[in-house]
Predict the structure.
Amino acid sequence: MRFMMLMFPAKYYEPGQELPDTKVFEEMNRYNEELAKAGVLLALDGLHHPKTAVRVKLDGGKKKLVDGPFTEAKEIVGGYWIIQTRTRDEAVEWASRVPLDPGSYVELRQIFEMSDFPADIQKMNEPLSQKLQK
């Protein structure tokens, strides 16, 4: 089972800003190393501030680009991990171990597997699946 853990930091650090104490980074690095050593880590990355983001929307039948920041955004995804575990409970255990600052949180979401879809949808996606496996 694959899961995405989304990090919602209480404070978002932008390029040029003073970063938190290196202890914060050391704790996160230690946690990431534990994930890797356990063999459950598939990917992880931090994300730039949403003021550098672009949204692609459909507006009146036409694609429209909207540059960030987005005033309606109350919560900002600061980064993510993709992990693979045997059970949901194991994924929850890993999510509960993320080092968090006060006010920060992690959201855990299961990723769809092709086997979750009906056979006709699986067959439709076989060519793409084969390309991705190379």
